Amino acid sequence: MTPAQKKIIILLFRGLEFGYAYTPQRQWRALKGLARDWRKINQEELRKEIRNLYRSKAIKRQENEDGSITITLTEKGKLRALNYHLDKIKIEDNDWDGKWRIVAFDIPEKLKGGRDALREKIKKIGFYELQKSVWVFPYNCKNEIDFIIEFFNMRKYVRFGTLDFIDNELHLKKIFKLK
């Protein structure tokens, strides 16, 4: 996939992101990202790459009754966009609120690929493995974890919680360099 095609898919994904945004702040962030990404696209290259995306079945075109055209992501295109977006997920190390976020999962062996990908992603963003398939993190990350769980389609196998107390807190504070 060319860089221009990636940009187009990200633009379409931003529209999807706006539609799913449940707070005005998230809607505003999606719109700002959309405007920024749109300015970076060469219009001639855009037309050429849209044709290529049709051919690859990443997007589909629908003509509306009023003569306008709607371009939407197909399932294949959504998966590509999520992959690009997933790579950008980072959790800010804000002031620690004294609570621990826990992600625990019990994913069947038949979904081993998804389980391994989920494990790698939460490890990459900074979670610490407390026990086998139980991970801990000190900062608020519910939205990011929900996105990752939905991306890997593992909602029924994954639990997320917040703890006020954990008996090995001193050890975890050292790991995360907290005071």
Structure description:
The chain is an alpha+beta fold. It folds into 2 domains: 3-86, Arc Repressor Mutant, subunit A; 100-176, Alpha-Beta Plaits. The chain has 7 helices and 6 strands, in the order αααββαβαββαβα. Strands 4-5-3-6 form a 4-stranded antiparallel beta sheet, with helices on both faces. Strands 1-2 form a two-stranded antiparallel ribbon. Strand 1 (59-63) and strand 2 (69-73) form a beta hairpin. The chain is elongated and about 65 Å long. The model has no long low-confidence stretch (mean pLDDT 82).
Give a brief rundown of this model.
Helices cover 50% and strands 17% of the residues. With 179 residues, it is α+β, with helices and mostly antiparallel strands. The longest helix has 18 residues, at 3-20.
Q: What are the salient characteristics of this protein?
A:
179 residues, alpha+beta, Arc Repressor Mutant, subunit A, Alpha-Beta Plaits, 2 domains, two-stranded antiparallel sheet, 7 helices, 6 strands, 50% helix
* Helix percentage range: 40-55%
Number of strands: 6
Pick out the low-confidence regions.
Answer: none
What is the helix tally? 7
- The CATH class of the largest domain is identified as Mainly Alpha
Oligomerization state of this entry?
single chain
- The tally of structural domains comes to 2
Report on the biggest sheet. Answer: 4 strands, antiparallel
Mean pLDDT value: 82
Strand content: 15-25%
Instruction: Describe the strand arrangement of the main beta sheet, using strand numbers.
Output: 4-5-3-6
The name of the CATH topology of the largest domain is: Arc Repressor Mutant, subunit A
Helix- and strand-based class? alpha+beta
Spatial shape: elongated
Rg value? 20 Å
Separation of the first and last Cα atoms:
45 Å
CATH architecture of the largest domain: Orthogonal Bundle
SSE arrangement, N to C = HHHEEHEHEEHEH
